[in-house]
Amino acid sequence: MHPELEAEQEYVDAAYQLLEAARQRALKLTGMVEVGKGGTNQARFERESIWESVANRLNELELGEAALIFGRIDQEEDAGSGRFYIGRVGVWNEEQDPVVVDWRAPIAEAFYRATGPMPMGLQRRRHFISRHRQLLGIEDELFGDLERFRTEDGQGLRGEGALIAALETERTGRLGDIVGTIQAEQDAIIRAPLPGVLAVQGGPGTGKTVVALHRAAYLLYTHRFPLEGQGVLVVGPNRLFLAYIEQVLPSLGEAGIEMASVADLVGRTWVDDRRGPEAVALLKGDLRMIRFITRAVRTRQRSLQTDLRLGFGLQWLTVSVEQSAAMVAEAQRRFRTHNAGRKYIVAELFAALAASSNEDLDPEGLAERLGADLLVREALEWMWPVLTPAQLLNDCFGSRPLIRAADRQLDQAQVEALFCPRRPNAAEIRWSVSDAPLLDEARAALGPRPGRRSTDAVRTYGHIVVDEIQDLSPMDLRMLKRRSLNGSMTVVGDIAQATGAWAQNDWDNILQHLPSKQPVRRHELTVGYRIPAPLMEMPNRVLAAVAPDLSPPQAVRSEGAPPRVIATRLDDPTQGLVATVAQESAAAGAGNVAVIVASSQVEEVEALLEAAGVSFGRPTRQGLDSSVAVVPVNLVKGLEVDAAVVVEPARIVAEQTQGLRSLFVALTRATQRVAILHEEPLPAPLDE
Question: Could you tell me whether strands 98-102 and 91-92 are parallel, antiparallel, or unpaired per DSSP bridges?
Answer without folding.
Answer: antiparallel
